Amino acid sequence: NKYFFDQLNSFHNQLQDEFDGKPELKYLNALRLKYAEPNSADQRAVLASISLDELYLSTRVYNALIEEGINNMHSLSIKSPRELIGIDNIGEEALKEITQTFRQYGFELR
After folding, report:
1. pTM metric for this prediction
2. Which of 2, 36, 54, 92 could join 42 in a cystine, given CB atoms 3.0 to 4.6 angstroms apart?
3. SS3 of 44-70
4. pLDDT, position 2
């Protein structure tokens, strides 16, 4: 798995400039997350490299998270559902949207 993860990272780095912000990169990032060791520095690095822009969240949810200083998947992943609900303009529907987005990456909120 580590070798495959390293190869995916190399491929990602080669394509990042060309595909930055495009859906194609989303699938590659999902693969990188799948093969990263859980709770590892590699996994945290992948999460930190995925900006909120790449998650295609609704404008309301996106703006609420940015206002709270959450700008990538890692900063979002360390929040509990209860903490997220405590953010202005984040309610049950927004939490569902965030949860579904995380699942698209094969990842669950904590």
Report:
1. 0.77
2. 36
3. HHHHHHCEHHHHCCCHHHHHHHHHCCC
4. 83
